Amino acid sequence: MVKHTKLAIPQIVAEDARLGPDPVRLSVELRLHVDDADLAAATPAQRKRRKKPSRAELVELAGKIYDARRLRDKLISDEIFGEPAWDILLACYCLPARGEILTVTSLSLVSAVPQSTGFRWQQTLTERGYLERGSKGADQRIVPIQLTEVGRELIEGYLTRLLKCAEPVLNCAIDL
């Protein structure tokens, strides 16, 4: 007999109505709750295999992806690759866990994108609600930047799914 759990989908919709419409966030949350329903219907062995990874595991995976992208840029001309938005979001997710304080200026550098491109994408990602600028400290020239909760949820949702389907491949590729 399959045990069904009641999903809190109306609560998700209410939250989005309060925060303003964000179909991407709603879609990710809905998919996560569908995963929860699948998990509730799974056998104990299936549940063990499908447990959600911890934030530390996701940060570790993001760090491996970040390091692999920087290695690729060193080994193969980085001029033929380009995903500035992804590199910026990935850096904002994994580098603070390594003790790096990201600023508007340093984020372009660690994301391996030109300053003008980095500033443009930071602005776009901020407007979409994925990044936020912090308050300036004693040095008015330094503006910290970080993921918003919405940005963090999107990255973690993606990494969770990636980990479920590609962990053996990623571990093999990183060890090369």
From TrEMBL:
Where does this protein come from, organism-wise? Sphingomonas sabuli
Q: Which SUPFAM superfamilies match?
A: Winged helix' DNA-binding domain
Q: Which domain of life is it from?
A: Bacteria
Q: Which InterPro entries match?
A: WH-like_DNA-bd_sf, WH_DNA-bd_sf
Give the protein name, as stated in the record: MarR family transcriptional regulator
